[in-house]
Write a structure and sequence with these properties.
The complex is a heterodimer of chains A (269) and B (256). By secondary structure, chain A is mainly alpha-helical. Chain A has 10 helices and no strands. Helices cover 75% and strands 0% of the residues of chain A. Chain B is of the alpha/beta class and 256 residues long. The chains are: A mainly alpha (269), B alpha/beta (256). The complex binds adenosine-5'-triphosphate and magnesium ion (MG).
Chain lengths: 269, 256
């Protein structure tokens, strides 16, 4: 280990216990590790260690992805899925933020809602599929409802927790300079919660995507979940994997964008 | 009993727990009164009641003869931690004190902000966020905000507790000067006997919970109003400090 802290040694700090950050070095390692996994996977598949209907090689997945893009309208399916996820997610967020805040601000709201929400939160979404079909049929409503179900109840409790953690000192400073309850919420609590709120939104958006497949298996004729499910019926494993990879990529990109937004919005941290 | 801030048979219990025993006490206007007492004895509770943030279980608190019923900007709080808002710059933090004041126009507000930035030596940090400045600077911001709000009673709950010795000393000197110059009434809670003696016009010593007054020490009569740093090295200061320590040992039932 060298003591020099010149920025020429991009990688040395990565080996130090709790070492300094080196964004470029870390990015290089991330890419290299991913490449290594893909290369090993390709080798394993080519060597015939695993039958291709179980694990097709990455190159075949890429070919499948290309065919899906050019011939099977993959972009449209992705757009449909993204729209479903975002509509459900935004609905969940718009409802969860005020309700969560109220739950922690007024004991009566908390007492009324918390046990109920806690109960529903533990219901597995798939178990509610039949019920949701009975209620909403097999159209878009059911899909949005299922996605919403998977996110709203989690998010509302996270928001309530964040609100509860607003330091009493801040609330009292605001009250002594003349803020009323509403102003304490908008001018202090929301600002304090901002960073954790955005983090929680980012995380629950991820969960929303995980429920997508369940929602789109239910009598859908569009969406990435539908594409994966159809491919599975014909044991087109490369297509199935390509679909999964696409979801992963969308997740990765969204997550990074939201992290970037976080850094932009909360420069003071 | 007279005074600007008056506790009139004030008592406080949280459920079955009696925290403040029936207390009557008058605090002079434009004086700095230190509340001293063992941990958990009820000092913060007393202060919060003055702020209107807690209600006495019985009796009342008067400010200028008027009963305190809710918090308002005449009594400002300065805490040890979470004293300034991290999402606001120094300037905006000070401005927050006037955010809900309708009696000042934008020009007057800007003028006041400028005044307090200068008064606390914060002008160079006006655009900085609290986590970019030192702990001492953050406490200055908090005090400036309270003054900008127009408080004439400052309720300070161990405001310098987390600062290093040197910064703490500087802030004590500044606080004392500003308190005199701006004619403010300050209630100051601390555990530090030296700090108490150095700052106080008067020290009120409380017993263990439930708090009751066990000693009332007129520091101004001994040390005068003016407190240069050197006063800490005088015989008088030492004697007073030892007297207070002695009182704490013998009167509050606490082993220090
Ligand atoms: N909201 C509350 N509900 C119940 N008990 C409380 C409440 N606030 C304070 N207490 C109790 O009242 C007692 C006095 O608390 P207080 O914070 O006023 O003490 P303190 O003198 O400021 O202590 P410290 O020196 O540690 O800051 C403590 O035993 C505390 O547990
Ligand atoms: Mg306290």
């Amino acid at each position: 280990m060298s003591l020099s802290d010149g920025d020429s040694d991009l990688f040395s700090s990565l080996f130090v216990f709790r070492g300094r950050a080196s964004p470029l070095g870390e990015f290089a390692v991330s890419v290299a590790a991913a490449m290594l996994v893909i290369a090993l996977w390709e080798l394993a598949a080519r060597a015939g260690i695993i039958a291709p209907q179980f694990l097709p090689s990455p190159s075949r997945v890429v070919v499948a992805l290309w065919t899906m893009l050019t011939e099977q309208n993959l972009v449209w399916h992705v757009a449909v899925s993204t729209a479903r996820v975002w509509i459900a997610f935004l609905l969940a967020a718009i409802m969860a933020i005020p309700i969560g805040i109220m739950m922690s601000s007024y004991r009566i709201v908390g007492a009324a809602l918390e046990p109920m929400i806690d109960f529903i939160r533990y219901l597995p979404v798939p178990a509610l599929v039949p019920l949701s079909i009975i209620w909403f049929g097999v159209g878009e409503e059911t899909k949005i409802f299922l996605l919403w179900l998977g996110t709203f109840f989690q998010l509302v409790l996270l928001v309530a927790d964040d609100m509860r953690r607003v330091p009493q000192e801040f609330v009292e400073v605001a009250r002594t300079v003349g803020a009323n309850s509403r102003q304490v919420m908008t001018d202090v609590a929301l600002h304090w919660m901002g960073p954790t709120l955005l983090d929680n939104l980012r995380i629950t958006l991820g969960w929303c995507w995980t429920y997508l497949i369940i929602a789109e298996i239910v009598a859908a004729d569009s969406g990435i979940g539908y594409v994966i499910w159809t491919a599975r019926r014909f044991v087109k494993t490369p297509e199935v994997m390509a679909g999964v990879v696409v979801i992963g990529l969308i997740g990765l990109v969204t997550d990074q964008l939201l992290r970037l937004l976080h850094r932009r919005l909360f420069r003071y941290l | 009993m007279t005074g600007y801030v008056q506790f009139v048979d004030t008592a406080k219990s949280f459920g079955p727990v009696n925290v403040v025993r029936k207390t009557s006490l008058g605090l002079e206007r434009n004086s700095l009164v230190v509340f001293l007492g063992p941990s958990g004895c009820g000092k913060t509770t007393l202060m919060r009641m003055v702020g209107g943030l807690d209600e006495p279980s019985s009796g009342s608190i008067l400010l200028g003869g008027e009963k305190v019923v809710r918090p308002d900007r005449r009594r400002g709080m300065v805490f040890q931690s979470y004293s300034s808002f991290p999402w606001l710059t120094v300037e905006k933090n000070i401005a927050f004190g006037m955010r809900y004041r309708k009696d000042l126009d934008a020009m007057q507000k800007a003028e006041r902000i400028g005044h307090y930035l200068d008064l606390f030596g914060l002008a160079d940090f006006a655009g900085s966020y609290p986590n970019r400045i030192s702990g001492g600077m953050r406490q200055r911001v908090a005090i400036a905000r309270t003054l900008a709000a127009g408080s004439d009673v400052l309720l300070m709950d161990e405001p310098f507790g987390a600062l290093d010795a040197l910064t703490r000393e500087r802030l004590q000197v500044e606080l004392r000067q500003i308190q005199i110059r701006e004619e403010k009434t300050v209630i100051f809670v601390t555990h530090d006997v030296e700090e108490a003696v150095f700052l106080a016009d008067r020290i009120i010593l409380f017993s263990r919970r439930p708090a009751s007054v066990v000693a009332d020490i007129d520091v101004a009569a001994e040390l005068g109003a003016d407190r240069p740093l050197e006063i800490r090295e005088t015989q008088k200061f030492f004697e007073l400090r030892n007297k207070v320590l002695h009182l704490i040992r013998n009167e509050t039932g606490v082993v220090v």
